């Protein structure tokens, strides 16, 4: 028995055979259609796009079967496709809107519905480009965003090259949890023009995509928009420790300790870099503890000094920015006496933001 099958008709044959117990010839093919109306929808969240689709035609024929979809998506210049398999009819993802977006999807029919080997439909494809305006040079330059001490987000930028003097930029942002895109409420200005934004206190913005768009206007020419996606825990610049102590015991054993920087960052989230100086020679080392034991290299060294800076460690973020260095803390050798000096660097307690 040999069937030549096209699309849905195969299923009928397949199901009929299942019902009436006929044996299928090896050249019978089971086919499934691709999802319908596959599209990329931009809800206006500055890069957070909805990929959505409808079930394939004739899917009712597979009532007892699991229909799944394999979705592949990427920014157009990206070498790799991201892939997910889902039973849903939508997927949401944060894309870089400076570039185009492309996606493709096909239907998967599980193996037990298709005589032992999974069946795939052909692909449905969709693309999305945010309409562009203005030349590339009108975009802002050197965007720099820092999440100070896991508390205050601040971004700054430089105007595009050679833009007309009336050009003024605006910053918009969104992250999951906000109902709408918001505009910067407190711009940092230079000569009346916006060159940065001091964000208000944000409600749990970490560990999710944070979308920013800086666009602009000018009477003389359109201004190209710039898009950015951050995860705020990856751009944290903590405070340095503000209290250091150095103790020498038995002439040799040195105990360095420092305070955990103040603020909302948990103690387990820090890595420290220690710059230690003994008799004019310096070396650096890292630790995730807030103390360190070392041995004096030179018995006769008169002065031991160290300073510390901090960063969020790999257990809490993928990346981070080193804090400023703490004040230097030193110990001077006094025979027959065990001493330690303490310092509390006042300048470091009150954090100074740039642009204030
Ligand atoms: C179904 O599977 C059986 C056993 O693996 C095989 O003999 C038969 O040819 C297959 N039929 C189809 C239509 O693939
Ligand atoms: C730029 O925009 C800000 C508000 O976003 C406004 O206060 C300021 O006057 C504008 N500057 C110019 C030169 O248009
Ligand atoms: C800038 O982007 C915001 C948010 O998408 C939009 O509401 C606004 O109209 C844009 N402004 C310009 C000048 O394109
Ligand atoms: C190192 O110094 C700190 C604070 O001065 C102290 O709590 C700790 O016990 C000391 N550790 C050792 C091994 O001496
Ligand atoms: C280090 O110096 C002390 C005091 O000057 C001395 O008693 C001790 O023997 C010296 N130790 C070494 C290993 O040189």
TrEMBL record:
<dbReference type="InterPro" id="IPR003532">
    <property type="entry name" value="Short_hematopoietin_rcpt_2_CS"/>
</dbReference>
<dbReference type="GO" id="GO:0009897">
    <property type="term" value="C:external side of plasma membrane"/>
</dbReference>
<keyword id="KW-1133">Transmembrane helix</keyword>
<keyword id="KW-0812">Transmembrane</keyword>
<comment type="similarity">
    <text>Belongs to the type I cytokine receptor family. Type 5 subfamily.</text>
</comment>
<keyword id="KW-1015">Disulfide bond</keyword>
<comment type="subunit">
    <text>Interacts with IL4RA. Interacts with high affinity to interleukin-13 (IL13), but not to interleukin-4 (IL4).</text>
</comment>
<dbReference type="GO" id="GO:0016064">
    <property type="term" value="P:immunoglobulin mediated immune response"/>
</dbReference>
<dbReference type="GO" id="GO:0007179">
    <property type="term" value="P:transforming growth factor beta receptor signaling pathway"/>
</dbReference>
<keyword id="KW-1003">Cell membrane</keyword>
<dbReference type="GO" id="GO:0035772">
    <property type="term" value="P:interleukin-13-mediated signaling pathway"/>
</dbReference>
<protein>
    <recommendedName>
        <fullName>Interleukin-13 receptor subunit alpha-2</fullName>
    </recommendedName>
</protein>
<feature type="domain" description="Type I cytokine receptor cytokine-binding">
    <location>
        <begin position="142"/>
        <end position="235"/>
    </location>
</feature>
<comment type="function">
    <text>Cell surface receptor that plays a role in the regulation of IL-13-mediated responses. Functions as a decoy receptor that inhibits IL-13- and IL-4-mediated signal transduction via the JAK-STAT pathway and thereby modulates immune responses and inflammation. Serves as a functional signaling receptor for IL-13 in an alternative pathway involving AP-1 ultimately leading to the production of TGFB1.</text>
</comment>
<dbReference type="GO" id="GO:0002638">
    <property type="term" value="P:negative regulation of immunoglobulin production"/>
</dbReference>
<dbReference type="Pfam" id="PF09240">
    <property type="entry name" value="IL6Ra-bind"/>
</dbReference>
<dbReference type="GO" id="GO:0032905">
    <property type="term" value="P:transforming growth factor beta1 production"/>
</dbReference>
<dbReference type="InterPro" id="IPR015321">
    <property type="entry name" value="TypeI_recpt_CBD"/>
</dbReference>
<dbReference type="InterPro" id="IPR013783">
    <property type="entry name" value="Ig-like_fold"/>
</dbReference>
<keyword id="KW-0732">Signal</keyword>
<keyword id="KW-0677">Repeat</keyword>
<dbReference type="InterPro" id="IPR003531">
    <property type="entry name" value="Hempt_rcpt_S_F1_CS"/>
</dbReference>
<feature type="signal peptide">
    <location>
        <begin position="1"/>
        <end position="25"/>
    </location>
</feature>
<keyword id="KW-0472">Membrane</keyword>
<dbReference type="GO" id="GO:0043305">
    <property type="term" value="P:negative regulation of mast cell degranulation"/>
</dbReference>
<keyword id="KW-0325">Glycoprotein</keyword>
<keyword id="KW-0675">Receptor</keyword>
<dbReference type="GO" id="GO:0004896">
    <property type="term" value="F:cytokine receptor activity"/>
</dbReference>
<dbReference type="InterPro" id="IPR036116">
    <property type="entry name" value="FN3_sf"/>
</dbReference>
């Amino acid at each position: 028995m040999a069937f030549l099958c096209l699309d849905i008709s195969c299923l009928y044959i397949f199901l009929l055979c299942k019902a009436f117990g006929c044996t299928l010839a090896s050249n019978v093919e089971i086919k499934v259609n691709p999802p319908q109306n596959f599209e990329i929808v931009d809800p206006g969240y500055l890069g957070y796009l909805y990929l959505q689709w409808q079930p394939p035609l004739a899917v009712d024929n597979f009532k007892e079967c699991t229909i799944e979809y394999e979705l592949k998506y990427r920014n157009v210049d990206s070498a790799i496709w991201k892939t997910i398999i889902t039973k849903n009819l939508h997927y949401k993802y944060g894309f870089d809107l400076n570039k185009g977006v492309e996606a493709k999807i096909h239907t998967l029919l599980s193996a037990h519905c298709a005589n032992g080997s999974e069946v795939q439909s052909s692909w449905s494809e969709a693309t999305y480009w945010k309409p562009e305006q203005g030349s590339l040079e009108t975009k802002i330059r050197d965007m720099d965003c820092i999440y100070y001490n896991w508390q205050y987000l601040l971004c700054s930028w430089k105007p595009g090259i050679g833009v007309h003097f009336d050009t003024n930029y605006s910053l918009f942002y969104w992250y999951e949890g906000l109902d709408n895109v918001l505009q910067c409420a407190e711009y940092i200005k230079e000569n009346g023009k916006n060159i940065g934004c001091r964000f208000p206190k944000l409600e749990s913005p970490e560990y999710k995509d944070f979308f920013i768009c800086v666009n602009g206007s000018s009477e003389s020419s359109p201004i190209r928009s710039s898009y950015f996606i951050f995860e705020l825990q990856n751009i944290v610049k903590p405070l340095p420790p503000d209290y250091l102590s150095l103790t020498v015991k038995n002439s040799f054993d040195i105990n360095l300790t420092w305070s955990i920087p103040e603020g909302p960052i948990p103690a387990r989230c820090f890595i420290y870099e220690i710059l230690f100086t003994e008799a004019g020679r310096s070396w650096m080392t890292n630790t995730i503890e807030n103390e360190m034991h070392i041995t004096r290299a030179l018995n006769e060294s008169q002065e031991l000094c160290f300073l510390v800076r901090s960063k969020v460690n790999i257990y809490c973020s993928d990346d981070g920015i080193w804090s400023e260095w703490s004040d230097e803390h030193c110990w001077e050798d006094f025979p027959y006496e065990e001493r330690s000096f303490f310092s509390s660097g006042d300048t470091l307690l009150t954090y100074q933001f740039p642009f204030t």
